[in-house]
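Hey, can you fold this one?
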Amino acid sequence: MPPKRKGGRLQKNEAAAKSLSISRRRQATSTPLDKAHHNGTQEPADDKGKLIARGRLSDARKWFAHRGWSMLPPSAYGTLRWGADHAWLADPVNPIRSVRRWCRRWAPWLTGAELDQLVDETKTSNKRWSHDDSAVTLGITVRDRQTLSLWFVGASDDRNYEMRLGIAKAKAAARARKSRAKNSSGRPPGRPRLEIPAWKAAGYNSKRTYQRHKALGTLAQNGTENASRSLSKNRKRDGIKVPPLMQPSVDLAGIDFERFGILKISVMKGRNVVSTWSRP
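Sure. Predicted structure:
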């Protein structure tokens, strides 16, 4: 056990370590804009939140110029609040001065009391504006975003991101076509064509069969396979290829058929009569 006189010092060290751990955990889980909107003039926000806010204010200037606005109309109070929040985030060193400067530029019709009230409201606002929330407040559509290149805001008519995803896919396909055309060798796409042997080009299954048909002069004229195996092997009598007539190997004249009581003999092959013998 440590001495009692050191107990207070140990408790203070443990409390300081716990407080430091909680502070680090909060910093790790917070976003750039979440960090920026609580800072005020004491602690500057990180560069990412500042750059996003400045980029959105730049897009807003393009949008106002496109609409022909030299200043905001009094009815656009939501746009004024949006601009005040982003002016606060854009200058973390002196956010109050940034808000006053932006409001005097785009809302010169504000009175001193109204401007002070707007600054007080900006101090306590959450300032958590997403890309699409900014587009809804400013009234920017997908077409406006693509035409004016407003890349720091979203689109008010594409909440599910379907239109922007289709545009991104079309641009990626165009880039791929351009890259392929630049690096093309002029050859057709795919693997190069292999050199096909003559027997395969003629439609035969083996080189030996092709050589046999070539020697007999029975190669297919159209360069395709035969209609059926029976035709090429002549195993079926279909009237297309008739075998030649052959003489019998037995000499009928040397046989005495009268001895057996035979009066007439006809030797046939199919419907064709090959040889005949009859009693004289």
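The mean pLDDT is 78. Let me know if you want another pass with a different chain boundary.
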